[in-house]
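Dear support,

We are seeing what looks like truncated structure output for some complexes. This example has two components. We would appreciate it if you could run it in full and send us the complete token output so we can diff it against ours.
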Amino acid sequence: MDEAALVEQARAGDLNAFNRLVLEYQDMAFNLAVRMLNDDDAAADVTQTAFLSAYRSLSSFRGGSFRAWVMRMVTNACYDELRRRKRRPTVALEPVTDDDEEIESPAWLADDSPSPEEEMVRSELDAALQRCLNGLGEDFRAVVLMVDVEGLDYQEVAEATGKPLGTIKSRLARARLKMRDCLRQYGELLPSVFRLDDEVTP
Amino acid sequence: MRAHINQRDFEKLSAYLDGQLTPSERKKLEERMRARPELRTALEEMDRTRALLRMAPRRRAPRNFTLTPAMVGADRPAKRQSGGFPSLFPALSFASAIATLALVISFLVSPSLSRPETTAMMEPQSPAAEEGFSVLSTEEAAGELAAGEAGAADRAAETFAIPEMPAAAAPEAEQAPEIAQAPPAAGDTMSDRAGPIITWGYPDAGGMGGGGKGGSGIVVPPQGIESLQNGELAARSAPSDELQAKASSSGPILGLPPTELAGQIIDSSGEVREEGLLVAPAGGQAEPVPQSDAAPQYEAEEQPGAVQTPQAMPRLLGLPVLYVIQGLLGLLALVTGVAAYILWRRSKV
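Here is the complete output from our reference environment:
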């Protein structure tokens, strides 16, 4: 698939060409959205919105990485959704008891009437990762997800977020440090090869 | 150990992992790592963290997010509406409704507003007319013949005498003593009228009936009229402006005069009654009582020659102000309506 040719055709109004691009990037877009929002339904809505926005604003695409362009749309849609949640919070982000004390091991992380597929996907590692990702600020989460999970390079992330490279480097380093500190408490859940405190103890 | 590693070092290590350092930076960092084992440890930890993140299960899209022509087409209007220009649509619709409402209100209010205005505007043109319909002032002047007092009483009286058919009395006063003789009945009925004026608070009945008749009836002698006219002219030119303001702000329009004005009316009408009885007893024989008291408007309309011209004048005089406003409001309603229609059409495309 010649991506540049498809983009040109899409810009000329060829919806089929654009849809081929959608099929190429929809998994990545949805994965980023679901990691950002930790909500499958909201992630699906955001992904659809992002592709719609991408199609509408194709005229402002100045070339470069189309993947970064799509990620930019997804990231912006995620920020919009997160802002909407802050304005109208419906569910507590962290489960609390009646005494307003945070539950150490939330039941919904292990099982909240999940489907078998969800059960498979939400492995212990996945749950630990997601919990640590949720603890990051939105900007840091977006950067670490795009670089370490989606495999974008720094330049693409800079395009997707509209931030300079230096900011991306700084945010990525901070996010990795926070993730390292967070994942350490789940050491026993992680594969032995990845137990982070092995190296700390001499 | 980790405490010695600053944020800058972590950024270097992070970029080193991703191969984002320049050759010279990489070389420097590698030399430092050889000298500082904590940097190596930090690098390994970061590498493992990154490996964990890369291991994170990837979620596949639960469905295809391809766009359909319907989705794209249906969203175009929504996109336009989210823009700056179409967002004026509801505001314009609202403005149209407001303008229409204002137009209706202005029509409803304008008759009562136009009366004092037209009366005031007519003052310089036909002072004699004012003598006629400003009953109390005429009587007051007849009794005391003090120009200043006449002006003051005039103001009080005219606030009541202004509203209905102010010009109706003008021809009476101007035309002749025989027309003026009709009014004396008003002088007779003053005592009766005093009640209605105050209790109803409606100026038109007293003002008009008394205005036309009381004035001329009392001032039967021609020289009396002349002297009054002169006196009134002198005294009136100044207070006419005040009068207008007073007339527009005081009760008579709504039929509920302020208390102080009502008090003046009572006093004035008391004087009038005395004057009428003493000075112009002949008034009683001229006209029957009900005519002056009951329906001054109709009376005015019954005198075609006297009425038509003055009645047309207030409307012409009121036109520049209220009718222009009404016209502008109508124009605004039309423009906003057209704009709303155009926007509606554009939003459908």
